[in-house]
Amino acid sequence: MLSYFGTDQSQVQRYISGSSLKESRLGLMFNAVCKIPMQFSILFIGVLLFVFYQFEKPPLFFDSASRAYMARKDADPKLLAYKSEFDNSHTDKRRHLEEWLRAKRSGDRPVAKTAFAAALAEEQRSEQIRDAAGKELASKNLEAKAHDADYVFITFILSQLPHGIIGLLVAAFLPRHCLRRQRN
């Protein structure tokens, strides 16, 4: 990632395409002032989503097609058992994280260390369950569109945000030229 952010093509383009040295430097400064905070914001959203799903129960699959398959009446009993096991693992992890936070606030380091280790073990267990369920789902010859992590943000948006905010996000994502074509 350091090579990407350190030698990004857009930065090189700004420098080379400037009509003067001053304009090239101005372009790079604009990049530093705008791009770095924007990138920090994007990465910070990822951190916030990670923390959110530590305490709120995530779905076994973030992919909507896989979740729809799980919701069907004739879903595979083995997959349903994985889902139940995953939910139990998440409940245990959340309990350990809350215990860790309480111990950390009270200054009880040994209890905090033990609770954190237990939460980490539950996280690893839940990831093993998710991997096994994913392999089971793939064995059913269901079409996997992309890596499940690609759906985390959109799942959060659709399941946690109010409809008005979702509408504003969609409007922000649509390019203006798409909206102009519809008016003409």
Task: Provide structural commentary.
The chain is mainly alpha-helical and 184 residues long. The protein has three domains: 55 residues; 89 residues; 36 residues, no CATH class. It has nine helices and no strands.
Short account of what is shown:
By secondary structure, the chain is mainly α.
Number of domains: 3
Q: Element order, helices and strands?
A: HHHHHHHHH
Strand content: under 5%
Uncertain residue segments: none
Task: Write a concise keyword list for the protein shown above.
184 residues, mainly alpha, 3 domains, extended
Topology:
Blueprint: H1 2-6, H2 9-17, H3 21-55, H4 64-71, H5 77-106, H6 109-139, H7 152-160, H8 163-173, H9 176-183
Helix pairs in contact: 2-3, 5-6
